[in-house]
Amino acid sequence: MLWLLVGLGVVIAAILLIAAFSPPTFRVSRAATLGVPPDGVFPYLEDFHRWPEWSPWEHLDPDMKRTYGGADRGVGARYAWDGNKKAGAGSMAITELESPSKLVIQLDFLRPFKASNRIDFTVAPAAEGAGARVTWTMSGANPFVMRVFGVFMPMDRLVGRDFERGLAKLVTVVSAK
């Protein structure tokens, strides 16, 4: 029994040590190439009313309450949601815009956990010569509790999959127009 307790203590200590040496910030980034020029992609990013067409989170709760405020699109546009346990609650506001190449969003989660993050979208001509390369990046603080959680489920794996689904949907939606 003593060996079991010692073993458990060593495992817990190892997890806490790994978390303690993990970075205090995180950054998750994914990119996709779309077959349209940058100015054909940008309207889907700068207008929160269009996000339900491609965002990977919009359909987590069919009864989610959405509110829009500020500008219709671009700097000053705001969007808030309040949904079930999967969707959570929070808000976004566009804070910077350089059309059609850069968009910065302040993202604040209220539920299931409080967090403030930065979202960056960059849109550039694709290296292949046709279309646009869209890069979606989220960055923010990585408090100790999240670093402990990250030992088992890193932020990159947790959010990266959603970014991949959202970008794939954006490719489909934009290509269909």
Q: What does this 3D model show about the protein?
A:
With 177 residues, the protein is of the alpha+beta class. The chain has a single domain, classed as 2-Layer Sandwich (Alpha-D-Glucose-1,6-Bisphosphate, Chain A, domain 4), CATH 3.30.530.20. Helix content is 33%, strand content 34%. It is elongated, with a radius of gyration of 19 Å. The protein starts with a helix and ends with a helix. The mean pLDDT is 89.
In terms of topology, how is this protein built?
Blueprint: H1 2-20, E1 25-34, H2 38-46, E2 65-69, E3 78-82, E4 89-98, E5 102-111, E6 115-125, E7 132-141, H3 144-152, H4 155-176
Antiparallel strand pairs: 1-7, 2-3, 3-4, 4-5, 5-6, 6-7
Helix pairs in contact: 1-3
CATH superfamily annotation: START domain
* Fraction of helical residues: 25-40%
> β content, as a range?
25-35%
Low-confidence blocks of residues:
none
CATH topology: Alpha-D-Glucose-1,6-Bisphosphate, Chain A, domain 4
Biggest sheet: strand arrangement: 1-7-6-5-4-3-2
Largest sheet: 7 strands, antiparallel
Named at the architecture level, the CATH assignment is 2-Layer Sandwich
Structural class: alpha+beta
On the 0 to 100 scale, the average pLDDT is: 89
Q: Ends: how far apart?
A: 66 Å
Shape: elongated
